[in-house]
Design goal:
The chain has 3 helices and 4 strands; from the N terminus they run βαβαββα. By secondary structure, the chain is of the alpha+beta class.
Length: 90
């Protein structure tokens, strides 16, 4: 499921390393104002340093049964603000 700002990638039923591979392949498709919402069954800790080292930021939301990880380009303040507003509005 995709809308103009959010690319949803549900990897909650995939075995490692597929979730990381899929998300890393998707990063290049992000345009300004867009972010990835990765739905996972656990926290992919190795992914976090890869994202930071590659110029991306992430926010983890554990308020639901599955973990939502929001990923956006570090230089994209618009996407970062959309994520912040979305999480804070719950």
């Amino acid at each position: 499921m995709t809308n103009e700002t959010e690319i949803i990638i549900d990897v909650s039923e995939l075995p490692p390393p597929k979730p990381m591979e899929i998300v890393l392949e998707s990063l290049d498709r992000l345009i300004p104002g867009q972010y990835i919402k990765m739905i996972h069954r656990m926290q992919p800790h190795p992914l976090y340093n890869i994202l930071l080292d590659s110029g991306y930021r992430y926010k983890v939301d554990t308020s639901e049964a599955l973990i939502n990880i929001y990923i956006w380009k570090a230089s994209d303040n618009e996407a970062g603000q959309i994520i912040k507003d979305s999480i804070n509005s719950r």
